[in-house]
Design brief:
The complex is a heterodimer of chains A (337) and B (398).
Chain A lengths: L1 H14 L1 H9 L5 H5 L13 E3 L4 E2 L3 E4 L11 E7 L21 E8 L6 E11 L2 E9 L6 E3 L4 E6 L5 E6 L2 H7 L1 E2 L2 E2 L11 H9 L24 H12 L56 H6 L18 H13 L3
Chain B lengths: L2 H10 L8 E4 L5 H11 L5 E4 L2 E4 L4 E3 L5 E3 L6 E4 L8 E5 L5 E8 L4 E6 L4 E9 L13 E4 L2 E6 L2 E3 L4 E6 L2 E6 L2 E3 L3 E6 L2 E6 L2 E3 L3 E6 L10 E6 L2 E3 L20 E6 L2 E6 L2 E3 L4 E6 L15 E5 L3 E2 L11 H7 L7 E3 L9 E3 L5 E3 L15 E2 L17 H6 L2
Parallel strand pairs in B: 1-2, 2-5, 3-6, 4-7, 5-8, 6-8, 7-9, 8-10, 9-11, 10-12, 10-13, 11-14, 12-15, 13-16, 14-17, 15-18, 16-19, 17-20, 18-21, 19-22, 20-23, 21-24, 22-25, 23-26, 24-27, 25-28, 26-29, 27-30, 29-31
Antiparallel strand pairs in B: 31-32
Classes of the chains: A alpha+beta (337), B mainly beta (398).
């Protein structure tokens, strides 16, 4: 390992003094902060970033992207994982990658482009010996530090679509509302099917993933949403945006709606399914999905609303994802034709 | 040492610590202080709300076992959600052995208090109210325990829910006692649940008073063993204001008790008055469904002795005039659809009168009804299992 690191340092030096200097000066991630029992008050205590404001990761912190991302009012998301020295991920079919204890998942939410980009919050998931812990950190005005926001918070901002919203940073419990199954905190995003085969392959080559599983990278690419086949895209979108609650053991299990990618029962995914506890969220409609009739489908009605008590998802959304709505509308309209 | 570091240090120690009481007074930053206290609480802690009103923009949540959240009284400590901007309910509880007591939730955008997978929970002297009166834009449920074993809801009050005031769903071992529910679509609803005692409540001015439902297509089904006893079910005359599409939107104004599907329901010693459609209605699930696990019949439903006052005199039913004329100006108190699985449908005590639609299968059109007086041989006696919340919950209140 030290031999490999020596090679890396040599390679970096060859790239030029400035880069090498930054990398060598980069702080190491604090394994004690990640795996210890405390809730660090400042994001910098973890040492995830060589340069927080520019979101340049520290050594051992690896960026990744999702084929279909979870939509959060159009926020730009910068995603990273951290693996402790000498550890690796284990693939579990096309599902969630298995993270070793001491690993972390880091996601920063930003709005604005180029020089105008502002970091809003960074959410961390820490894999500790007794399970995952989710913590939200809020960036300061100067963009020099993010501070633990256990109780969450709100701020006014304008989305990329030009809508002025009150953006909600979730509190620690709300993190768990989405990140939970059977009462335990779990990661949502890094499922093998939602990561590119290139990324999985590179991780395997680097010894940081045990194998590239069948089904890795099998979700469609969200960039094809306007013209690609509606069904796989819509099912992938619902899986990524809704299924963490709408599945057995999830936060909305009592609704009976199961929007996971792998669910094949039409009734479970909402087709001709009557509402249970939707209240006014039903919008006067009788079925979650009425094939061929998107405007009579509760699922689309709730996606297309930003009003609390009606809007779905309940958290992390203050405006409507028009691309997602257009896609799901197209899928329901095509149904039964 | 700051508060969070201190809390973190506490979390790090293995030694048991004495339970603490954290007091939250209304005023600057109260919403944040309250949510932080709910997050940092340790099992056994008490979080005490002072008198006054706390305005919230986001839903609160509690995920620590054994915590008590206690106010100065349902009219003194008020959590005001009129300006709520996010979350599906006012307060969400996802941990076990929690006690909620002596505070109010006003005008939440969605449900009032939801507890999910929260075993052995107590709601005592809680008020949930939509202060603008009955409106379709009010939230669905006031007090909403679901997927839980051990539920006690007592001395609470819910006003204005656009679905059910007190709704217990997909749960077991339940007591709902001594509550007052007014101006909701359904006063109290027990849905897809077993072993429930609904006792000594007052359900008035709702669309329907007490509902016992079993619905298809849900993770937990086969509801039953429900006792409705000693309740006052009076003047449930509010026009149905539920958003269409919801099952309760089909409840007729002036319904006292409505049993739909279920296995084992006992209705006894209640006082009924002024329910203009029917004091008691027992029906099969009427809609098409595709679920092999589901039984749509109302089975083993017993209507024992009850005090039936004026009622059935303005039924929200097709053919109302002809029905009223045929029955001499008012329908008898019990309305049954007549749909039986194996001769185990409705049973009545001596002296109970009613009428039947004389339908034969679930989902049959009402147009095929052949209304006639209830022709059932009264039971001389019956046995019914003891039901309700575990004794431990009752003991915790003392």
């Amino acid at each position: 390992m030290s031999f490999a690191r020596g090679l890396l340092v040599a390679a970096l030096l060859a790239l030029g003094g400035a880069v090498a200097h930054a990398q060598l000066a980069a702080p190491r991630v604090s394994d004690a902060a990640v795996a210890g029992p405390a809730f660090p008050g400042k994001l910098s205590e973890f040492g995830f970033f060589a340069d927080g404001a520019r979101q340049r990761p520290a050594r051992g912190v690896i960026p990744y992207a999702l084929k279909v991302p979870l939509w959060s009012d159009g926020a730009e998301k910068l995603r990273f994982i951290y693996l402790p020295e000498g550890s690796q991920l284990a693939a579990d079919g096309e599902g969630l990658l298995q993270f070793p204890v001491g690993a972390a998942i880091i996601k920063t939410f930003a709005f604005g482009e180029g020089a105008a980009r502002r970091l809003i919050e960074t959410r961390v998931l820490l894999h500790r010996a007794d399970g995952w812990v989710a913590l939200p950190y809020r960036w300061n005005e100067e963009q020099t530090e993010a501070t633990l926001a256990l109780a969450g918070g709100r701020l006014d901002l304008v989305t990329p679509a030009g809508e002025a919203i009150s953006y909600a940073i979730p509190n620690k419990n709300q993190c768990k509302t989405c990140h939970s199954r059977d009462g335990k905190v779990i990661p949502i995003g890094p499922k093998a099917r939602n990561l590119s085969r290139e990324w999985l392959g590179a991780m395997w080559k680097a010894g940081q993933l045990d194998h590239v599983p069948a089904g890795g990278g099998s979700l469609p690419d969200w960039r094809t949403r306007a013209t690609g086949p509606a069904e796989p895209l819509a099912r992938a979108y619902l899986d990524v945006n809704c299924a963490h609650c709408h599945q057995p053991g999830g936060g909305a299990s009592n609704s009976g709606l199961d929007l996971r990618w792998e669910q094949s029962d039409p009734h479970a995914i909402g087709i001709m399914k009557r509402p249970v506890a939707a209240g006014r969220g039903a919008g006067g409609h009788n079925f979650s999905i009425l094939p061929g009739q998107p405007d009579a489908s509760i699922l689309l009605y709730r996606m297309d609303s930003a009003e609390p008590g009606i809007a779905m998802p309940e958290l992390g959304k203050a405006s409507v994802d028009t691309d997602g709505v257009a896609l799901v509308r197209r899928w329901i309209a095509e149904m039964g034709k | 040492m700051n508060r969070i570091a201190f809390a973190a240090a506490l979390l790090a120690t293995a030694a048991p610590l004495a339970a603490e009481t954290h007091r939250i007074e209304a005023g600057e930053g109260a919403a944040t202080r309250l949510q932080e206290a709910l997050i940092l609480a340790r099992p056994g802690d008490v979080i005490e709300l002072g008198e006054g009103r706390i305005a919230l923009t986001d839903g609160l949540s509690l995920d620590v076992d054994g915590v008590t959240l206690r106010g100065a009284g349902m009219d003194k400590s008020v959590l005001d959600f009129t300006g709520q901007q996010g979350a599906g309910e006012g307060l969400l509880v996802t941990s076990d052995n929690v006690t909620l007591q002596g505070f109010a939730i006003e005008n939440p955008k969605g449900d009032g208090i939801k507890s999910k997978g929260a075993d052995n929970i107590i709601y005592n002297a809680i008020r949930v109210e939509w202060t603008g009166g009955p409106k379709a834009t009010n939230g669905a449920y006031g007090i909403y325990p679901v997927e839980s074993t051990g539920v006690l809801v007592t001395h609470s009050r819910v006003i204005g829910a656009s679905d059910a005031g007190i709704y217990v769903g997909q749960s077991r071992d339940i007591t709902v006692r001594g509550n007052q529910v007014e101006f909701n679509v359904a006063g109290i609803e027990i849905e897809n649940s077993r072993n429930a005692l609904v006792e000594n409540n007052i359900a008035t001015r709702n669309t329907g008073g007490l509902l016992v439902f079993d619905l298809p297509g849900l993770p937990v089904m086969n509801g039953g063993n429900v006792i409705l006893r000693g309740n006052v079910v009076k003047d449930n005359d509010t026009p149905n204001f539920a958003p269409p599409g919801n099952i309760v939107a089909s409840v007729r104004r002036g319904t006292g008790v409505l049993v739909m599907a279920n296995d084992g329901v006992l209705i006894e010693n209640n006082a009924f008055e002024g329910n203009a459609t029917a004091h008691v209605m027992v029906i099969a699930y009427p809609q098409p469904y595709d679920d092999a696990r589901y039984n749509p019949y109302a089975r083993n439903v017993i209507v024992g002795p009850n005090a039936f006052g004026r009622g059935g005199d303005d039924p929200q039913l097709d053919g109302k005039e002809a029905l009223l004329e045929a029955f001499g100006g008012a329908l008898p108190p019990v309305l049954w659809d007549g749909i039986v699985e194996d001769g185990n449908g409705l049973r009545i005590a001596e002296g109970v009168t009613g009428w039947s639609l004389n339908l034969s299968k679930p989902g049959q059109s009402l147009a095929e009804a052949q209304p006639g007086p209830l022709m059932l041989t009264p039971l001389e006696s019956w046995q019914f299992p003891a039901v309700g919340a575990p004794a431990e919950l009752e003991a915790r209140l003392k």
